[in-house]
Amino acid sequence: MNEHFVVRPADALAGTVDVVGAKNSVLKLMAAALLAVGRTTITNCPQILDVPLMADVLRSLGCEVAVDGDVVEIDVPAELNSEADYRSVSRLRASVCVLGPLVARCRRAVVPLPGGDAIGSRPLDMHQAGLRLLGARSEISHGCVVAEADGPGAALRGAQIWLDFPSVGATENILMASVFAEGTTVIDNAAREPEIVDLVRMLQEMGAKISGGGTSTLTVHGGADLVPTTHRVIGDRIVGATWAFASVMTGGDVTVRGVDPHHLDLVLDKLTQAGATYEAVSEGFRVRGNGRPRSVDWVTLPYPGFPTDLQPMAIALSAVSEGTSMITENVFEGRFRFVEEMVRLGADARTDGHHAVVRGVPRLSSAPVWASDIRAGAGLVLAGLLADGETEVWDVAHIDRGYPRFVENLRALGGNVERVNAPPAR
Ligand code: EPZ
């Protein structure tokens, strides 16, 4: 059996949707818990597939983890296993973020290489380069990234680290590895995403001496003793923005609660260029479409630029906009695979290297399509709302990995979508 969604044309979406904690924050916060012996509690957690998968990785390191609704409790022992389980890590790319905390706590870490995925090759060279500057030897061996503190007494030492690119994952791993290092670490050209700020805040609550969260220069005064904490995850700006795009694409009126609109300043500004209006409301924001959107150009960049995770939504909106849009993908080289599926739905779209050109059409036409990753899946469902006929979106497990209660939330906004369990059509 292969689950799929059946999406039928929708009128203007309307209503309020509550968004919970961010996938791209909670997974790192769970890894950060490794830095303190005892119980750390994380609240406002999204109920998505990735959270129990991350819990399995932490259990393979010797932790006890309880996932109960939107609360995750992690009991971290004094002795940690420094080798993460191959099977658990291979099921969840993001689990590579245990590398930094393990090197910090155990002076050694063996983490299976997550490998590439549908959106790109995703190397770890910047993670390793940063750990080496902190005084760890690091190599790829037997399919794993191995890192081991190499200094006298096998201690890590503070360092000045420049990242070639403001990588989210490298910033997080180096940050977590440096909290126990002797002396001061400065990470320059660091990632500035709100999820990084959320991680910095939790580490500060645990007792770490860090400054510069949200800027491109993070400074860590190492050597602090960290204690467990209770931390609330920030709202998921990518999920919140996905609902905003759905509102604009259908000429709707949707209020998103649980997300800080300032985490989406540029995104909301681009949507107004497409003809929408938005206003901040208590605990979130309200986005109103205005008939058929106007075409605009989109350029993905690290935060505070336009998020690459919303690129499929930008293409889906451009496919039904008035006019021609250029979409430039600067973060992941393989993220235009999505366009092939959009063409199946009748989109007039072509790619050339890291550019895509999309000529808007008044209406798409339904077809069976396949989700290649989380965001592509959501983009195909949004496009299906603007397609004549029944669109079948397959491989929806991808969507479940990043969007809690996706079908229920879309139906509550008036979307005509259903989860179906049937043998694959093809
Ligand atoms: C995080 O991935 C997110 N994942 C991604 O979201 C998001 O797209 C990405 O950041 C950018 O915002 C999680 O947080 C779990 P990067 P990450 O390191 O950390 C290259 C989603 O849909 N690079 O900032 O892997 C890399 O190949 C996912 O929720 C190196 O070359 O992203 C990419 O081209 C998809 N060497 C670019 O940098 C390195 O050592 C950005 O990657 C590290 C990265």
Question: What can you see in these coordinates?
Answer:
- The protein is of the alpha/beta class and 426 residues long.
- The protein has helices at 23-32, 50-60, 86-91, 99-106, 125-133, 168-178, 194-205, 237-249, 265-273, 311-319, 337-344, 374-384, 397-402, 406-412, and strands at 2-8, 14-18, 38-43, 64-68, 71-76, 108-112, 136-141, 144-149, 160-162, 184-188, 209-211, 217-221, 230-232, 253-257, 277-281, 284-288, 298-299, 324-328, 348-352, 355-359, 364-365, 368-370, 387-388, 391-394, 416-422.
- Helix content is 31%, strand content 27%.
- The strands form seven sheets. A four-stranded mixed sheet has the order 22-24-1-25, covered by helices on one side.
- Strand 7 and strand 8 (144-149) form a beta hairpin.
- The mean pLDDT is 95.
- The structure holds ligand EPZ.
- Ligand EPZ binds next to helix 1, helix 5, helix 6 and helix 12.
Task: Lay out the secondary structure.
Elements: E1 2-8, E2 14-18, H1 23-32, E3 38-43, H2 50-60, E4 64-68, E5 71-76, H3 86-91, H4 99-106, E6 108-112, H5 125-133, E7 136-141, E8 144-149, E9 160-162, H6 168-178, E10 184-188, H7 194-205, E11 209-211, E12 217-221, E13 230-232, H8 237-249, E14 253-257, H9 265-273, E15 277-281, E16 284-288, E17 298-299, H10 311-319, E18 324-328, H11 337-344, E19 348-352, E20 355-359, E21 364-365, E22 368-370, H12 374-384, E23 387-388, E24 391-394, H13 397-402, H14 406-412, E25 416-422
Parallel strand pairs: 2-14, 3-13, 9-10, 17-18, 21-23, 22-24
Antiparallel strand pairs: 1-24, 1-25, 3-5, 4-5, 6-8, 7-8, 10-12, 11-12, 14-16, 15-16, 18-20, 19-20
Helix pairs in contact: 1-2, 1-7, 4-6, 5-6, 6-7, 8-10, 8-12, 10-12
The chain binds ligand EPZ.
